[in-house]
Design a protein that fits this description.
Protein-Tyrosine Phosphatase, Chain A, 3 domains, nine-stranded mixed sheet
């Protein structure tokens, strides 16, 4: 199916096409480009113009460029600025869309909620959703520029690191429904307090279409800020919300959440999920309500979702094929802040180890927490789930403050870098153990996950300490 012709793209961007073309997709990376894609030569760590020839070698249908690189003969769309051209394509993609557009932001849970919405909405039609965590000044335009005209629903993830980022992306997206998952201590280096983060996130509502619905978490310290931005037509979810969380039950294999909405009761079962995902699921049901969908069918659709790798995905490690000795790995290594870390520890505490097994946490630094980062790391030691955790290994200078705040018997290794701990992977896990790995992406604690996955057999060695 054709996504953009030269005529459409020229009209959207004001650029000039060197030859007629019709493209079926859009890519910014020659490593994943598909035949027929429009290659967008963005300037990031490398100048995308250096890869235009390679893109055509791999079958690109055209290239969006600000100049034609030497030796390139394929059809190009020439614009003054490539990012501005991509943004214009995104705006045109949104303008011609026939389906409903849902935007999601929040300090925690954006990508997971986006994927929950995808699973829920596929019950009701064709769904286009942001790839991976494409949620910034180029990710949002890419999502919109890739939006098929005939999609029934589009889900756009919007993120930020600094003040002033949300509103332009919201105005570009023009959502029919906009949802804020939660407000938590993330990116505090760029904001003075949680109120500042809430105000920035609430700017997502500035882009709502006429009659659009603003959805927000009712259980937060900053909920009054979100409610004020949402206005009288806003819809809240949570224990104190209009979409009310009646109960949450964690089983060894699933989370079961019960919600009451408009006087009716609905049950949601999420496989291998922690309690913090219950509120995200409620927010998704609030989206279904705003779209006028069958809520029982929507709740059923949510049950297909499972946490992806790096975001709480649970897997079994075969430590010794001869004896079939196993351990459980909870891979939550994609990101971390105090709220999500506390929730992950709750999941660990609710997971039953095997015979003779232990609950073990491997925790990497939480980044971008601002001047209170030391206190925020140390405070994790007081979380109730720590009492049910047998051993905690830490990675990074910030997490060292947590290690120092722990009772002596719970102190595992205190490593400066993830690779230092990864090298000890065979000492970290015994048969029957449940191991949580959690940390900010920049702590590289995912490398410990990789090391654990490559274990071939257990070498029980309980050495701990720095």
């Amino acid at each position: 199916m054709t996504l953009w012709t030269d005529t459409d793209a020229v009209a959207a961007t004001g650029g000039r096409a060197t030859a007629p073309f019709a493209v079926s997709g859009l890519s910014i990376d020659t490593r994943s480009i598909r035949p027929g894609d429009l290659f967008v030569a963005l300037k990031a760590a490398r100048d995308g113009h250096d890869f235009v020839a390679q893109a055509f070698e791999k079958g690109a249908g055209a290239a969006l460029v600000s100049h034609i690189p030497e030796g390139v003969t394929g059809p190009c769309l020439l614009v003054e600025d490539v990012l501005a051209g991509l943004t214009a394509l995104g705006a045109a993609g949104r303008a011609r869309a026939r389906g409903k557009v849902i935007a999601v932001t929040g300090s925690v849970g954006k990508t997971s909620t986006k994927e929950m919405l995808r699973e829920m909405l596929v019950e009701f039609g064709s769904v286009h959703a942001a790839e991976a965590s494409f949620n910034n000044h180029w990710g949002v335009p890419i999502t919109l520029a890739r939006l098929p005209q005939d999609a029934d629903f589009a889900i756009v993830e919007i993120g930020m690191n600094h003040p002033g980022e949300i509103k332009p992306l919201a105005l570009l997206t023009r959502p029919d429904v906009a949802m804020i998952t939660t407000i938590a201590p993330a990116h505090l280096e760029a904001f003075t307090d949680l109120a500042g983060i809430a105000l920035e996130k609430a700017d997502i509502y500035a882009g709502l279409t006429p009659g659009g619905v603003a959805i927000y978490n009712a259980d937060l310290e900053t909920s009054p800020i979100l409610a004020g931005a949402a206005g009288p037509q806003g819809v809240s979810f949570g224990k104190a919300g209009q979409v009310a969380l009646a109960s949450v039950r964690l089983t060894p294999s699933a989370l079961v959440a019960t919600t009451i909405m408009d006087g009716d009761t609905y049950h949601i079962r999420l496989s291998d999920a922690g309690a913090h995902f219950a509120l995200n699921a409620l927010g998704c049901l609030a989206v279904a309500r705003a779209l006028g969908l069958d809520l029982a069918l929507a709740a059923q659709g949510l049950g297909r979702w499972q946490p992806p790798a790096g975001r709480g995905k649970r897997e079994t490690l075969l430590l010794d094929p001869a004896t079939e000795a196993t351990a459980i790995l909870i891979d939550d290594a994609f990101n971390a802040n105090p709220t999500s870390l506390a929730a992950a520890l709750d999941v660990l505490a609710a997971t039953q180890p095997g015979p003779g097994g232990r609950r073990i946490a491997i925790l990497g630094d939480m980044l971008e927490l601002g001047p209170d980062e030391t206190a925020l790391h140390a405070a994790i030691a007081q979380h109730p789930a720590v009492a049910k955790t047998d051993l905690i290994h830490t990675v990074g200078p910030r997490m060292k403050t947590l290690w120092q705040a722990l009772p002596q018997g719970k102190r595992g290794h205190c490593a400066a870098q993830a690779d230092d701990l990864g090298a000890k992977a065979h000492h970290l896990v015994h048969p029957g153990d449940v191991v949580l790995v959690k940390g900010s992406k920049g702590s590289y604690v995912s490398r410990v996950v990789d090391a654990l996955r490559h274990l071939g057999h257990p070498l029980p060695d309980d050495t701990t300490g720095e």
